[in-house]
Write a sequence for this structure.
């Protein structure tokens, strides 16, 4: 099974044998990869009960819970890594979520769709309506993305939170692209952070 | 009710110390097993039964003739697969299907009745651990339990952490709430208010406190079902009649059903056992046993946990399961948790539920 590109890049950069918490782990694809390929001790958190059931039935340790509330129950630095893939923009308070990621984990991986991608900008500029694009395929009234964010917004937030941006990866059309003009060119971004 | 001859009985060779400070001499544990124990004893799964359950997990009940209480979950090719695992289910101490309880004979040759020491969930588990020792099982592949069975599984994990590699807790809790205790007290008072209870000394009498025990069961049975489930099953429908009788017969189907549940229960259960086991459940609070902090009960555990709740269970609601999960997270334990959707309240763990089957199978494997 091939991982989504942002998950593949995370899987490739987690130090083998680490303790990892995957927040919004979905069907557990990344967790399974981290456990089998990297010998990690992976735990997951997922809101959707059907997804949790799939994870548990494949032998993964996943807790059904709401990351907005339940991260508070984990001790400081309980994990080497916390991972938040394509979930930040759905958080009630992304700024507080980032704090929690860096409290519970020594390092954090965060991936999100970049709202400043040129397609999105163009769609809004020319269409005058909330963009529905390849990267953001759901209409404004039913999307779970309640806090749209751009690459530059995220960098600002990290600075504000005194989080160190260790590494960054950018993707367009499922392919990795370079960092220059990423705020225009990247459909998705992945950041590795520490504090 | 005499100890039942059907199941093998293990006599614990040493006195069993109890939380009350008393000691139970010559304690006996009746148990059933399914499947074959591997030569290295690595494939044992202990299933712990609920309040009125017994060791007849996947084999017919000797009194009622009904299939085992978890027959749908345990057997060849089933989620708890007896082709792969050696499955043990033992009657808890205090019960009445062959293990030592108030109906058992004391050293003086008369039934213990209320002279039987008050026991706790941890005492029950002490008995189970002694049985495992007797069977030569140092470490369980898994311990599994629903409701009071889940309490035993948690107690085993907290007090004998090296004895189980996996801990599966379904529709259960780490402590009895005020509401839980209140419902049990109604049941106990119903039994003790029955003149036939006679201070517990009814074993030689013609009449047993069946009326009290039936009422206790009726009250408890309501807590096992959801309001929506009762409405769906019975609504306000009348029982075998076209109009209300303007009397106190069982006019409504739900009344008839509860009366049937109550009286059927008295055929297979001892009233004093009901008192002792509900007491044990009411005393249950794992955090209290470990300095007041639940996470401390599981500090350093190497076991994997899976906690399952049902959205319509108001006896041991999801919040109680989450409380356990949060403690396990804080203790750094490997834990899974899922709230399953089912219409039937607390009893859902005993009923047909494909998602539960998949979770149990995936976790036990």
């Amino acid at each position: 099974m091939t991982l989504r590109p942002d998950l593949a890049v995370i899987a490739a950069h987690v130090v083998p044998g680490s303790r990892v918490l995957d927040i919004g782990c979905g069907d557990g694809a990344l967790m399974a990869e981290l456990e089998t390929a990297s010998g990690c001790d992976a735990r997951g958190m997922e809101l959707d009960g059907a997804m949790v059931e799939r994870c548990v039935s494949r032998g993964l340790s996943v807790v059904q819970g709401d990351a907005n509330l339940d991260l508070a129950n984990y001790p400081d630095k309980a994990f080497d890594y916390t991972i938040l893939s394509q979930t930040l923009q759905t958080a009630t308070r992304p700024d507080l979520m980032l704090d929690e990621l860096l409290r519970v984990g020594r390092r954090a991986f965060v991936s999100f769709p970049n709202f400043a991608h040129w397609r999105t900008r163009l769609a809004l500029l020319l269409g005058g309506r909330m963009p529905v694009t390849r990267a953001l395929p759901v209409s404004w009234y039913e999307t779970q993305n309640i806090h749209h964010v751009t690459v530059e917004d995220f960098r600002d937030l990290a600075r504000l939170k005194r989080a160190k941006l260790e590494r960054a990866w950018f993707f367009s059309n499922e392919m990795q692209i370079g960092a220059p003009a990423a705020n225009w060119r990247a459909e998705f971004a992945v950041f590795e952070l520490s504090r | 009710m005499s100890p039942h001859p059907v199941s093998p009985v293990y006599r614990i060779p040493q006195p069993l110390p109890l939380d009350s400070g008393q000691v139970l001499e010559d304690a006996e544990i009746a148990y059933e097993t399914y499947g074959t124990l591997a030569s290295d004893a690595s494939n044992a799964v202990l299933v712990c039964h609920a309040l009125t359950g017994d060791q007849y997990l996947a084999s017919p009940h000797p009194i009622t003739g009904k299939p085992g209480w978890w027959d749908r979950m345990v057997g060849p090719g089933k989620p708890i697969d007896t082709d792969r695992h050696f499955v043990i289910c033992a009657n808890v101490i205090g019960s009445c299907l062959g293990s030592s309880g108030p109906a058992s004979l004391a050293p003086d040759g008369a039934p213990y009745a209320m002279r039987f020491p008050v026991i706790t969930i941890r005492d029950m588990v002490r008995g189970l651990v002694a049985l495992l020792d007797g069977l030569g099982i140092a470490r369980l592949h898994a311990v599994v339990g629903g409701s009071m069975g889940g309490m035993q599984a948690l107690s085993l994990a907290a007090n004998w952490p090296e004895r189980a590699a996996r801990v599966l807790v379904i529709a259960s809790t780490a402590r009895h709430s005020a509401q839980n205790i209140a419902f049990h007290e109604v049941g106990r008072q119903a039994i003790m208010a029955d003149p036939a209870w006679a201070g517990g000394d009814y074993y030689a009498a013609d009449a047993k406190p069946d009326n009290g025990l039936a009422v206790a069961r009726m009250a408890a049975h309501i807590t096992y079902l959801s309001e929506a489930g009762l409405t769906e099953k019975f609504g306000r429908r009348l029982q075998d009649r076209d109009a209300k009788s303007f009397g106190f017969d069982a006019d409504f189907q739900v009344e008839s059903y509860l009366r049937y549940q109550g009286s059927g229960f008295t055929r297979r259960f001892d009233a004093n056992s009901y008192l002792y086991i509900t007491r044990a459940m009411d005393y249950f609070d794992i955090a209290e046993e470990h300095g007041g902090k639940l996470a401390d009960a599981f500090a350093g555990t190497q076991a994997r946990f899976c906690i399952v709740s049902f959205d319509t269970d108001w006896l041991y609601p999801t919040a109680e399961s989450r409380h356990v999960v949060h403690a396990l997270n804080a203790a750094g334990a490997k834990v899974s948790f899922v709230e399953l959707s089912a219409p039937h309240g607390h009893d859902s763990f005993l009923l047909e539920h494909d998602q539960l089957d998949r979770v149990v199978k995936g976790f036990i494997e």
Q: What stands out?
A: Chain B touches chain A at residues 304, 306, 322, 325-326, 329-330, 332, 334-341, 355, 358-359, 361-363, 365 (CB under 8 Å). The first helix of chain B runs from residue 121 to 135.
